[in-house]
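FORM 12-B: Structure-to-Sequence Request
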């Protein structure tokens, strides 16, 4: 239920989140990962699903991120927290973050809250957590 716009998938892995976003109408959709095999898999899967993604090898916590309306990341708590330091003060407006345990949720999102985001929704399943944030 994100407004359609420019979306960035950080730690894209196989590209499933980026591909789903493109199929839901987000454009352009960027996908980055620090693993060359993940980048190759994302390119291959985007082609197989007939979607256009901007895919590149990059470390989301250490390199400038593309301007975007929304960021999605299914990565570890430490990477989620570090990613908050890499986002610009102006973008993104939304973040959907997952890949961490419920017990690590506060540590994962505290840096995002310090950067002006507020929690809008939280989901927990089998001790795994996901959170939707919006910049206030």
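FORM 12-B RESPONSE
SEQUENCE OUT:
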């Amino acid at each position: 239920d994100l407004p359609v716009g420019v979306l960035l998938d950080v730690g894209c892995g196989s590209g499933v989140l980026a591909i789903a976003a493109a199929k839901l109408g987000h454009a352009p959709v960027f996908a980055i990962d620090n693993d060359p095999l993940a980048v190759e898999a994302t390119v291959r899967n985007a082609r197989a699903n007939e979607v256009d993604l901007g895919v590149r090898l990059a470390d989301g916590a250490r390199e400038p991120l593309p301007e975007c309306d929304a960021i999605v990341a299914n990565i570890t708590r430490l990477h989620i927290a570090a990613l908050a330091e890499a986002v610009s003060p102006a973008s993104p407006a939304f973040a959907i973050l997952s890949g961490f345990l419920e017990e690590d949720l506060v540590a994962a999102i505290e840096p995002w809250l310090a950067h002006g985001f507020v929690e809008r929704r939280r989901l927990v399943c089998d001790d795994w957590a996901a959170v939707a944030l919006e910049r206030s």
